[in-house]
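Dear support,

We are seeing what looks like truncated structure output for some complexes. This example has two components. We would appreciate it if you could run it in full and send us the complete token output so we can diff it against ours.
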Amino acid sequence: MFIAKINITLKDSVLDPQGQTVLRALHDQGKSIVSDLRVGKYLEVKINTDDKSEADALAKELCESTLVNQVIETYRFVTEKL
Amino acid sequence: MKVNVVTFPGSNCDQDVGTILSNVYGADVNYVWHREQFNDLPDLVVLPGGFSFGDYLRTGAMAKFSPAMESVFAYAKKGGRILGICNGFQILTEAGLLPGALLHNRSLKYVCKDVNLLPVANNKIAKTIRQPSLKIPIAHGEGAYYADKETLQTLEDEGNIVFRYEENPNGSLHDIAGISDKAAKIIGMMPHPERAVNPYIGNEDGKLILDAILEKLS
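Here is the complete output from our reference environment:
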């Protein structure tokens, strides 16, 4: 069994109003050292295989077919053996 | 006129648009549950507003895998006419039937109010609308239209922008409120024309939009 840990964020070219709002709140608290903040999504997908390359390939396929809208989002993932 | 209105779990404007099309335009309206497919070729398929699949993952993302959408893809391939309103527009972009995507409103607030829409002169549908500005209700949290620069340029050049907002309520690029494909057969828009047709509501501007879309069918 593998688990794919997937992070999805808006592309850099896409304005992230949620991230900007949280960033502003941090700045209001005096944390001006924080220079940027992006809000994204974290997904965990369990994949019933012992073959890491199969798990990697499936995680990529799931991202590109369903989990990520590549018009606006970018993703990265790691697969770990459970 | 035969119209198929596709109902997804969470659609909540299917009856609104169906009732208007049937009562005002005399259409023979067939409600298609999302698990069903259809083989008939109606004059129009409507993807209605609402919150399909609870807007989980992304608005419209899950709906494209419904069996009914296989029929919609086949229908589109045969040159069928499709109208996606609000969540229906989000579904059309997720399904790749229209370009771009709908992002959270820049204000991060759900916006529910009347807005003024400007029909865009070089669009095949919009140019038949004689009124320069239309008052139409919007009600959405994720209605900011986004596409990359090249796509926006193509939309502009090919006359695929149907409506712009007079005052941008959500951060849509190029003030876009609705787009179509090049042939103006597939139309997606965030505002709700079906909510501005009945004279009892005090606003019939939505009828001008539906007239323009349905005119091509008669």
